[in-house]
């Protein structure tokens, strides 16, 4: 892995990615695989708040989230509807679990593309809490969620209803906080972090998930009998196969990931890097084979959808053709074609 200082991904990123509507074929896919569900609260329902105030963390720093306030009657309806949604996510709609749950807080973030609402659900019997998110449905993000579910080692739980997207909370230490507070602690196994970052870098590139700056992923730390294990998990899927530059699909080229990249350079040889890269490609190829019909259905939807501009498609396929030394990308007409071809050339998989 190398750090190319001539590339500044932060400057290459598009200022604002538009939301793309869900086409009928994608809607059919969601229905077939039980992602489509009727839900009692929509994104638009949460917009009708009466006031808001900034939310600060335990250190007194602004989190960029605001806590929403609603009138008492509306809050009563939202409490009932949002706990039903939580039951749909967690127990396939078994409402018997709702009796001891309540909505403790509804937060809103105006930062980024999806402008999510974050719902804090509390169990009043033991004060344990959990979160889920209510967002505007966007085809790019749905393709990203599905590709993550199929091709990564992580399972993704979400629901769609009309123009509303419900996502479960992905637990872990935010990447930027991990780099700042945990990365250089003596107890952190830096070799394992470097190894996982190489694998994460490969997962993002093979399926073309972009914008993996450090605040768009979390580090899941698992204690083991020997030492801790680490898993890097993407939490933002808005930039699934949207941008037109190859480097934007490689987390190693975002400057706020430099501390981890420097660890990789210091602790790994090129042979080790290639070993981990090939290990991850092998695992992804096995997942492709185990879900090939589902993946083909999803890619077929992408190939008739418009989730980027023709200019970005043209530039990306040229850069990938050069990277892979392959003329196969010349036949790509849209981002669905490009994703399919990148999987095929990277993994040798037929989709």
Into which percentage range does the β-strand content fall?
Answer: 15-25%
Low-confidence runs of at least 5 consecutive residues: none
**Cα-to-Cα separation, first versus last residue:** 29 Å
* Overall geometric form: globular
Order of helices and strands: HHHEEHEEEHEEEHHEEHHHHH
- Cα gyration radius (Å): 21 Å
The proportion of residues forming helix, as a percent range, comes to: 40-55%
Counted by DSSP, the helix tally is 12
Describe the structure.
This protein has 351 residues and is of the alpha+beta class. The chain has two domains: 185 residues; 112 residues, no CATH class. Helices cover 42% and strands 17% of the residues. The strands form two sheets. Strands 1-2-3-4-5-7-6 form a seven-stranded antiparallel β-sheet. Helix 7 crosses helix 8. The mean pLDDT is 93.
Condensed summary:
By secondary structure, this protein is an alpha+beta fold. It is built from twelve helices and ten strands.
From the structure above, extract its key features.
single chain; about 350 residues; alpha+beta; 2 domains; seven-stranded antiparallel beta sheet; three-stranded antiparallel beta sheet; 10 strands; globular
What's the layout of helices and strands?
Elements: H1 9-12, H2 24-32, H3 43-47, E1 51-56, E2 62-69, H4 72-91, E3 101-109, E4 117-123, E5 129-136, H5 139-151, E6 158-161, E7 164-168, E8 173-174, H6 175-181, H7 190-207, E9 217-222, E10 229-234, H8 258-267, H9 270-290, H10 292-303, H11 310-324, H12 335-347
Antiparallel strand pairs: 1-2, 2-3, 3-4, 4-5, 5-7, 6-7, 8-9, 9-10
């Amino acid at each position: 892995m190398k750090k190319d200082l001539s590339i500044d991904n932060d400057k290459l990123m598009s200022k604002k990615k538009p939301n793309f509507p869900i086409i009928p074929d994608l809607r059919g896919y969601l229905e077939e695989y039980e992602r489509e569900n009727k839900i009692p609260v929509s994104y638009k329902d949460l917009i009708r708040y009466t006031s808001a105030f900034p939310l600060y963390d335990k250190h007194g720093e602004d989190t960029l989230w605001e806590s929403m306030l609603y009138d008492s009657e509306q809050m009563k309806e939202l409490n009932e509807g949002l706990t039903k949604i939580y039951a749909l996510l967690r127990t396939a709609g078994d409402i018997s679990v709702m009796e001891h749950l309540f909505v403790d807080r509804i937060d809103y973030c105006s930062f980024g593309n999806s402008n999510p609402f974050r719902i804090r659900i509390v169990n009043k019997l033991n004060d344990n809490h959990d979160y889920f998110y209510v967002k505007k449905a966007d085809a790019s993000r749905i393709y990203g969620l599905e590709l993550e579910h199929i091709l990564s080692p992580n399972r993704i739980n979400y629901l769609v209803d009309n123009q509303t997207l419900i996502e479960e909370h992905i637990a872990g230490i935010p990447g930027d906080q991990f780099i700042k507070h945990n990365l250089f602690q003596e107890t952190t196994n830096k070799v394992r972090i470097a190894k996982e970052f190489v694998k994460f870098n490969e997962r993002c590139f093979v399926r073309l998930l972009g914008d993996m700056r450090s605040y768009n992923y979390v580090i899941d730390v698992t204690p083991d009998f020997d030492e801790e294990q680490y898993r890097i998990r993407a939490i933002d899927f808005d930039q699934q196969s949207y941008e037109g530059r190859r480097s934007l699909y490689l987390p190693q080229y975002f400057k706020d990931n430099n501390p981890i990249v420097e660890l990789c350079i210091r602790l790994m040889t090129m042979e080790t890097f290639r070993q981990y890269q090939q290990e991850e490609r092998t695992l992804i190829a096995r997942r492709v084979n185990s879900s090939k019909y589902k993946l083909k259905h999803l890619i077929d939807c992408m190939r008739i959808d418009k989730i980027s501009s023709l200019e970005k498609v043209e530039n990306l396929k040229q850069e990938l053709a050069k990277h892979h030394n392959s003329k196969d990308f010349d036949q790509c007409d849209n981002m669905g074609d490009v994703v399919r071809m990148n999987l095929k050339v990277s993994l040798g998989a037929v989709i």
